[in-house]
Specification:
200 residues, mainly alpha, Arc Repressor Mutant, subunit A, 2 domains, 9 helices, 0% strand, globular, HTH_AraC, DNA-binding transcription factor activity, transcription regulation, transcription
Length: 200
C-alpha cells in the first residue's frame, strides 16, 4: 500500500487474522528490501509457521519495560524478512508473469498523471496488447484498462481527501481530457460524485 493511499478494510463474518501497524522507517532498514507484491497467497504450512510470530508480538505488547520496544521491533523485522523470503519464492515460481505484472503496476503508478493507453503500456513492456491482457487477467482477474482506471480513481480519492484541488483540476491532473467524463467514471466506481465524496 502506498503512503497516503485511500483505503478501507472490509471483513467477512468468518474473517481470521492479524493486522500489524508500524512506522514506515522500519521498512527502510538495510536488511529489509521488500518487493512490490501487494499480498502473498500463503500455503497452510506457511500460515502455521507465521502464526507464532504474530502471537509472540501480541504477548510482548503486554510488557512495558525497556526491552519491550526493542523486542517488538526485532520481532516485526524478523516477520518482514520471513515474508520477504516467501515473496522471493513466489516470484521464482511464477516467473515472467509475476515480474511483468509488478512492472506494469509500477508503470501505471509512475504515469498516473498521464493519459496513456493500454497500447502505450504494452509498448513500454515490449508486449502485445493481447499478451498484457492475458497476464493481467491471470494475475489480477481484470483487464489492463480496468486496472489503470481503478488506480486513477484511487489517486483521485486521495487528492479529493487530502488537497483543495477542484474536481476539474484533479481530472486534468490524472490525464482526463474531459472533467465530466471523469465525474461519470468516478460515480460509477464509487456510487458518489467527486463533489459528494469530498464533502463526506
Amino acid at each position: 500500500m502506498q503512503p497516503k493511499q485511500v483505503h478501507n478494510w472490509s471483513y467477512s463474518k468468518n474473517s481470521k487474522g492479524y493486522i500489524v501497524v508500524f512506522d514506515k522507517h522500519l521498512l527502510k532498514e538495510p536488511t529489509i528490501e521488500f518487493t512490490n507484491i501487494p499480498y502473498l497467497d500463503l500455503s497452510s504450512i506457511d500460515k502455521k509457521s507465521l502464526k507464532p510470530l504474530f502471537e509472540q508480538l501480541i504477548e510482548e505488547f503486554k510488557y512495558n519495560d525497556s526491552l519491550s520496544e526493542k523486542t517488538i521491533i526485532q520481532g516485526i523485522s524478523f516477520l518482514l524478512l520471513k515474508l520477504r523470503r516467501l515473496s522471493n519464492e513466489l516470484l521464482q515460481n511464477k516467473g515472467f508473469y509475476s515480474k511483468t505484472t509488478l512492472k506494469f503496476s509500477k508503470l501505471v503508478l509512475d504515469n498516473i498523471n498521464k493519459n496513456l493507453s493500454v497500447n502505450d503500456y504494452a509498448s513500454k513492456l515490449n508486449l502485445t496488447i493481447d499478451k498484457l491482457n492475458e497476464i493481467c487477467k491471470e494475475n489480477y482477474g481484470q483487464s489492463p484498462k480496468t486496472i489503470i482506471l481503478e488506480k486513477k480513481i484511487t489517486e483521485a480519492k486521495r487528492l479529493l481527501y487530502f488537497t483543495d484541488l477542484s474536481v476539474k483540476e484533479i481530472a486534468f491532473r490524472l490525464g482526463f481530457e474531459d472533467s465530466s467524463y471523469f465525474s461519470r467514471i468516478f460515480k460509477q466506481k464509487t456510487n458518489l460524485s467527486p463533489t459528494d465524496f469530498k464533502s463526506v
